[in-house]
Amino acid sequence: MSIENNLKQIYQRMGKAAEGASRGLQEIKLLAVSKTMKVEAVREAYQAGQRVFAENRVQEWLEKAPALPKDCEWHLIGRLQTNKVKYLNDNITLIHSLDRLNLLKTLEEQGTRRDIIWPVLVEVNTARDPDKAGLMREELEDFLNAIADCSHVQAFGLMTIGALEATPEETQGFFRELHQIRDVLQKKKIPHVNLDELSMGMSRDFELAIAEGATIVRVGRQIFGDRQAMNKPANI
Protein backbone atom coordinates (compact mmCIF):
# COMPACT_ATOMS: atom_id res chain seq x y z
CA MET A 1 0.00 0.00 0.00
CA SER A 2 1.06 3.59 -0.52
CA ILE A 3 2.31 5.84 2.24
CA GLU A 4 -0.81 7.96 1.76
CA ASN A 5 -3.08 4.95 2.36
CA ASN A 6 -0.98 3.85 5.32
CA LEU A 7 -1.38 7.27 6.90
CA LYS A 8 -5.13 7.19 6.37
CA GLN A 9 -5.34 3.81 8.08
CA ILE A 10 -3.20 4.96 11.01
CA TYR A 11 -5.37 8.04 11.56
CA GLN A 12 -8.51 5.90 11.38
CA ARG A 13 -7.10 3.55 14.00
CA MET A 14 -6.05 6.49 16.16
CA GLY A 15 -9.55 7.93 15.91
CA LYS A 16 -11.12 4.63 16.92
CA ALA A 17 -8.74 4.24 19.87
CA ALA A 18 -9.40 7.82 20.97
CA GLU A 19 -13.15 7.31 20.77
CA GLY A 20 -12.84 4.16 22.86
CA ALA A 21 -11.03 6.17 25.51
CA SER A 22 -13.58 9.02 25.35
CA ARG A 23 -10.95 11.30 23.88
CA GLY A 24 -10.77 13.43 20.76
CA LEU A 25 -8.37 12.66 17.93
CA GLN A 26 -7.26 16.31 18.04
CA GLU A 27 -5.69 15.60 21.45
CA ILE A 28 -3.13 13.23 19.90
CA LYS A 29 -0.20 14.05 17.63
CA LEU A 30 1.13 11.47 15.18
CA LEU A 31 4.89 11.51 14.66
CA ALA A 32 5.87 9.88 11.37
CA VAL A 33 9.18 8.27 12.32
CA SER A 34 11.29 8.63 9.22
CA LYS A 35 14.56 7.17 10.51
CA THR A 36 16.51 5.35 7.77
CA MET A 37 13.89 6.40 5.21
CA LYS A 38 15.02 8.19 2.10
CA VAL A 39 14.01 11.80 1.57
CA GLU A 40 11.65 10.74 -1.23
CA ALA A 41 9.59 8.64 1.19
CA VAL A 42 9.36 11.51 3.67
CA ARG A 43 8.33 13.85 0.85
CA GLU A 44 5.59 11.39 -0.15
CA ALA A 45 4.22 11.50 3.40
CA TYR A 46 4.35 15.30 3.30
CA GLN A 47 2.39 15.32 0.05
CA ALA A 48 -0.20 13.10 1.73
CA GLY A 49 -0.70 15.78 4.38
CA GLN A 50 1.68 14.68 7.14
CA ARG A 51 3.61 17.56 8.67
CA VAL A 52 5.19 16.10 11.81
CA PHE A 53 8.25 13.88 11.52
CA ALA A 54 10.74 12.30 13.91
CA GLU A 55 14.34 11.24 13.54
CA ASN A 56 16.55 9.11 15.78
CA ARG A 57 19.87 10.53 14.67
CA VAL A 58 21.01 14.11 14.41
CA GLN A 59 22.84 13.28 11.17
CA GLU A 60 19.64 12.15 9.46
CA TRP A 61 17.74 15.22 10.62
CA LEU A 62 20.49 17.44 9.23
CA GLU A 63 20.19 15.67 5.88
CA LYS A 64 16.41 15.57 5.58
CA ALA A 65 15.14 18.79 7.14
CA PRO A 66 16.61 21.11 4.47
CA ALA A 67 15.13 18.90 1.73
CA LEU A 68 11.55 19.21 3.05
CA PRO A 69 9.32 22.32 3.17
CA LYS A 70 9.82 24.66 6.10
CA ASP A 71 6.36 23.99 7.57
CA CYS A 72 7.49 20.52 8.69
CA GLU A 73 7.75 19.94 12.43
CA TRP A 74 10.80 17.90 13.46
CA HIS A 75 11.17 15.87 16.64
CA LEU A 76 14.28 14.05 17.83
CA ILE A 77 13.42 10.75 19.50
CA GLY A 78 16.67 8.79 19.63
CA ARG A 79 19.22 8.80 22.45
CA LEU A 80 21.03 12.09 22.05
CA GLN A 81 24.80 12.08 22.40
CA THR A 82 26.22 15.11 24.16
CA ASN A 83 28.71 15.75 21.34
CA LYS A 84 25.83 16.11 18.86
CA VAL A 85 23.99 18.88 20.75
CA LYS A 86 26.11 21.55 19.09
CA TYR A 87 24.61 20.58 15.71
CA LEU A 88 21.03 21.19 16.84
CA ASN A 89 19.17 24.46 16.43
CA ASP A 90 15.79 25.94 17.27
CA ASN A 91 14.20 24.19 14.28
CA ILE A 92 13.87 21.13 16.51
CA THR A 93 10.34 21.21 17.92
CA LEU A 94 10.91 18.71 20.72
CA ILE A 95 13.71 16.50 22.05
CA HIS A 96 12.04 13.37 23.40
CA SER A 97 14.95 11.65 25.10
CA LEU A 98 16.46 13.73 27.89
CA ASP A 99 17.60 10.92 30.14
CA ARG A 100 20.72 11.92 32.11
CA LEU A 101 22.36 14.81 33.91
CA ASN A 102 25.35 15.24 31.61
CA LEU A 103 22.99 15.71 28.66
CA LEU A 104 20.98 18.25 30.65
CA LYS A 105 24.19 20.11 31.47
CA THR A 106 25.25 20.14 27.81
CA LEU A 107 21.86 21.40 26.65
CA GLU A 108 21.98 24.18 29.23
CA GLU A 109 25.51 25.17 28.21
CA GLN A 110 24.71 25.18 24.48
CA GLY A 111 21.41 26.94 25.06
CA THR A 112 23.08 29.67 27.10
CA ARG A 113 25.80 30.13 24.51
CA ARG A 114 23.38 30.37 21.58
CA ASP A 115 20.32 31.84 23.31
CA ILE A 116 18.11 28.78 22.65
CA ILE A 117 15.63 27.32 25.09
CA TRP A 118 15.48 23.60 24.35
CA PRO A 119 12.00 22.00 24.55
CA VAL A 120 12.37 18.51 25.98
CA LEU A 121 10.58 15.45 27.23
CA VAL A 122 12.16 13.45 30.03
CA GLU A 123 12.55 9.77 29.24
CA VAL A 124 11.34 7.37 31.92
CA ASN A 125 12.18 3.66 32.00
CA THR A 126 8.81 2.46 33.26
CA ALA A 127 9.65 -1.10 32.23
CA ARG A 128 12.84 -1.02 34.32
CA ASP A 129 14.57 -2.62 31.35
CA PRO A 130 18.36 -2.54 31.83
CA ASP A 131 18.84 -2.49 28.06
CA LYS A 132 16.85 0.75 27.66
CA ALA A 133 17.66 4.34 28.49
CA GLY A 134 15.56 6.48 30.78
CA LEU A 135 15.27 7.47 34.40
CA MET A 136 13.75 5.24 37.02
CA ARG A 137 10.61 6.50 38.71
CA GLU A 138 12.40 7.21 41.97
CA GLU A 139 15.01 9.37 40.19
CA LEU A 140 12.55 11.51 38.32
CA GLU A 141 11.59 14.22 40.81
CA ASP A 142 15.20 15.09 41.58
CA PHE A 143 15.93 15.26 37.85
CA LEU A 144 12.99 17.59 37.25
CA ASN A 145 14.28 19.81 40.04
CA ALA A 146 17.61 19.93 38.21
CA ILE A 147 15.74 21.18 35.15
CA ALA A 148 14.15 23.85 37.35
CA ASP A 149 17.65 25.21 37.97
CA CYS A 150 18.22 25.63 34.22
CA SER A 151 17.26 28.71 32.24
CA HIS A 152 17.63 27.22 28.74
CA VAL A 153 15.85 23.87 29.09
CA GLN A 154 12.06 23.61 29.35
CA ALA A 155 10.35 20.28 30.06
CA PHE A 156 7.00 19.74 28.38
CA GLY A 157 6.28 16.17 29.40
CA LEU A 158 7.47 12.59 29.72
CA MET A 159 8.37 9.84 27.28
CA THR A 160 8.64 6.07 27.60
CA ILE A 161 9.26 3.15 25.26
CA GLY A 162 8.15 0.04 27.15
CA ALA A 163 9.73 -3.38 26.75
CA LEU A 164 10.13 -5.30 23.49
CA GLU A 165 9.17 -8.69 24.92
CA ALA A 166 6.27 -7.45 27.06
CA THR A 167 2.72 -8.70 26.63
CA PRO A 168 0.05 -6.18 25.57
CA GLU A 169 -1.22 -6.13 29.15
CA GLU A 170 2.27 -5.40 30.51
CA THR A 171 2.83 -2.71 27.88
CA GLN A 172 -0.45 -1.02 28.73
CA GLY A 173 0.63 -1.11 32.36
CA PHE A 174 3.87 0.70 31.50
CA PHE A 175 1.86 3.42 29.75
CA ARG A 176 -0.59 3.68 32.62
CA GLU A 177 2.30 4.07 35.06
CA LEU A 178 3.76 6.97 33.06
CA HIS A 179 0.39 8.73 33.15
CA GLN A 180 0.16 8.19 36.90
CA ILE A 181 3.70 9.47 37.46
CA ARG A 182 2.88 12.55 35.41
CA ASP A 183 -0.25 13.28 37.41
CA VAL A 184 1.64 13.14 40.71
CA LEU A 185 4.57 15.30 39.58
CA GLN A 186 2.46 17.84 37.71
CA LYS A 187 0.86 18.83 41.03
CA LYS A 188 4.25 19.81 42.43
CA LYS A 189 4.44 22.80 40.04
CA ILE A 190 8.19 22.54 39.49
CA PRO A 191 9.59 25.64 37.71
CA HIS A 192 10.37 25.18 34.00
CA VAL A 193 8.48 21.88 34.10
CA ASN A 194 5.08 21.38 32.49
CA LEU A 195 4.21 17.72 32.01
CA ASP A 196 1.22 18.03 29.69
CA GLU A 197 2.76 15.83 26.99
CA LEU A 198 2.98 12.03 27.18
CA SER A 199 4.99 10.53 24.32
CA MET A 200 4.34 6.80 24.30
CA GLY A 201 3.31 4.14 21.83
CA MET A 202 4.89 3.00 18.56
CA SER A 203 3.76 0.97 15.56
CA ARG A 204 2.99 -2.15 17.58
CA ASP A 205 1.22 -0.53 20.54
CA PHE A 206 0.09 3.04 19.81
CA GLU A 207 -3.57 2.16 20.36
CA LEU A 208 -2.79 0.92 23.88
CA ALA A 209 -0.91 4.16 24.51
CA ILE A 210 -3.86 6.26 23.36
CA ALA A 211 -6.09 4.35 25.74
CA GLU A 212 -3.73 5.35 28.56
CA GLY A 213 -3.54 9.05 27.70
CA ALA A 214 -0.75 9.43 25.12
CA THR A 215 -0.66 12.87 23.55
CA ILE A 216 2.08 11.89 21.09
CA VAL A 217 2.51 8.54 19.34
CA ARG A 218 5.55 7.56 17.29
CA VAL A 219 4.82 5.41 14.22
CA GLY A 220 7.33 4.50 11.55
CA ARG A 221 7.09 1.01 10.07
CA GLN A 222 3.32 1.05 9.60
CA ILE A 223 3.62 4.29 7.63
CA PHE A 224 6.83 3.80 5.66
CA GLY A 225 7.27 0.03 5.67
CA ASP A 226 10.44 -1.78 6.69
CA ARG A 227 13.53 0.28 7.35
CA GLN A 228 15.63 1.11 4.34
CA ALA A 229 19.38 1.08 4.01
CA MET A 230 20.53 4.66 3.68
CA ASN A 231 23.77 5.98 2.36
CA LYS A 232 26.01 6.52 5.33
CA PRO A 233 25.45 10.12 6.49
CA ALA A 234 28.37 12.47 6.69
CA ASN A 235 30.20 12.28 9.99
CA ILE A 236 29.63 15.21 12.30
TrEMBL record:
Post-translational modification N6-(pyridoxal phosphate)lysine, affected residues: K35
Q: Which Gene3D superfamilies match?
A: Alanine racemase
Q: What is this protein called?
A: Pyridoxal phosphate homeostasis protein
Q: Does the keyword Transport apply?
A: no
Concerning NCBIfam families, the annotation shows: YggS family pyridoxal phosphate-dependent enzyme
Its cofactor is: pyridoxal 5'-phosphate
Function noted in UniProt = Pyridoxal 5'-phosphate (PLP)-binding protein, which is involved in PLP homeostasis.
| Family, per entry | Belongs to the pyridoxal phosphate-binding protein YggS/PROSC family.
Q: Which domain of life is it from?
A: Bacteria
Alanine racemase N-terminal domain span: 24-227
Task: State one molecular function term (GO).
Answer: pyridoxal phosphate binding
Q: Which UniProt keywords apply?
A: Pyridoxal phosphate
Q: Which Pfam families match?
A: Ala_racemase_N
